[in-house]
Amino acid sequence: MIEFDNVTKQYDDGTVAIEDISFEVEEGTTTVLVGPSGCGKTTTMKLVNRLIEPTEGTVYFEGTDIEQKDEIELRRDVGYVIQEIGLFDHMTVRENVATVPKLKGWDDDRIRERVRELLELMDLPVEEYGDQHPTELSGGQRQRVGVARALAADPDVMLMDEPFGALDPITRAELQDEFLDIQAELDVTILFVTHSVEEALKMGDRIAIFDVGELVQYDTPQNVLENPKNDFVRDFIGQDRELKKLQVTPVRKVMYETNGERLPDVDPVAPSDTAQIALSRLLETDAGRLPVARDGEVVGVVEEADLRGTSDPTRGSI
């Protein structure tokens, strides 16, 4: 879907932001770019919608050199969410969400239906919130509107630059969980920038760990925790890697299909619940396994071995 091929970015003052970066982002996945301030993660992300141009190397979008794409059309086709949100305060919520579809020439009925669909998805019903202005909303609600606006034109790719960084810890955790649930319903490829290793481990299908312009390790969260590549990655992740894995692994990443078998009569966990929550529930109930439910409907099952990472790796998760 997106490929960075030996990409270097050097600014006019001689600063090398990233050097010889190469990795591929698979379609429909979330890749989190993480590292300390000034390591090049935001620079890397901005190359995708041509807010920054590479000095050397090539960024490919669906096999095409991104420099061959019109930058204005490209930016309209790529959703973009930033920490500051950037909503237009003089516009209503529905007008903010409709911005890019209008620029792309969608008809009014299509725009109206898309705005309604996305605001429902964000738990901001259009009847209640559509005519409000951003200044009337909480920080978490504004960030939801920002995500809806980024998704409005049904982009193939969405870029998220510290999207939850300005929120308080409780709201941030709630939005992370909600976004993980929403992500399961989306057919979109996401690049997500954060400085928080906990957020990276929780949100990413794959993680790109940067250190001063260098891509140090590109791997799944589980492999990063179990096999840190070097001392920098080991120190960056911190101590208690096994506990951290339980705390940041959502149930959706380890559950599997039920195939119709009878499940224990216990309260289910949600796909966005952490493995730590599910393991605690298992130990409390002594049930052996737990149903996983979304909106009251069972969508999978999880066992202790899955949560501890000792299950059969050939068994497919959903």
What report would you give on this structure?
It contains 14 helices and 12 strands. The chain folds into 2 domains: 2-247, Rossmann fold; 250-308, Alpha-Beta Complex (CBS domain Like), CATH 3.90.1280.20. It is α/β, with parallel strands linked by helices. The chain starts with a strand and ends in a 10-residue tail after the last helix. The model is unreliable at 313-318 (pLDDT under 50). The strands form 3 sheets. It has a 6-stranded mixed β-sheet with strand order 6-7-8-3-9-10. Helix 8 (169-183) links the parallel strand 7 and strand 8 (189-194). Helix 12 (241-248) crosses helix 13 (275-285). The longest helix has 15 residues, at 169-183.
The fourth-level CATH homologous superfamily of the largest domain is: P-loop containing nucleotide triphosphate hydrolases
The CATH architecture assignment of the largest domain turns out to be 3-Layer(aba) Sandwich
Within the CATH hierarchy, at the fold level, what is the topology of the largest domain? Rossmann fold
The CATH class of the largest domain turns out to be: Alpha Beta
Number of helices: 14
Shape from CA axes?
Answer: globular
Overall number of structural domains:
2
| Range of strand content | 15-25%
Structural class designation: alpha/beta
Oligomer: single chain
Strand order of the largest sheet: 6-7-8-3-9-10
Helix and strand element order: EEEHEEHEHHHHHEHEHEEHHHHEEH
Low-confidence stretches: 313-318
Radius of gyration: 20 Å
Average pLDDT value? Answer: 88
E-strand count: 12
Distance between the termini: 21 Å
Helix content: 25-40%
